[in-house]
Amino acid sequence: MTTPPSQQRSDQVADTSIGDLIGNISDDLSQLFRQEVELAKVELKQEAAKAGKAAGMLGGAGFAGYLVVVLLSFALVAGLSNVMDPGWAALIVAALWAIIAGVLYLRGRRQLKTVEPMPRRTVDTIKEDAQWLKNPTG
Question: Does pLDDT of 110 surpass 80?
Answer without folding.
Answer: yes
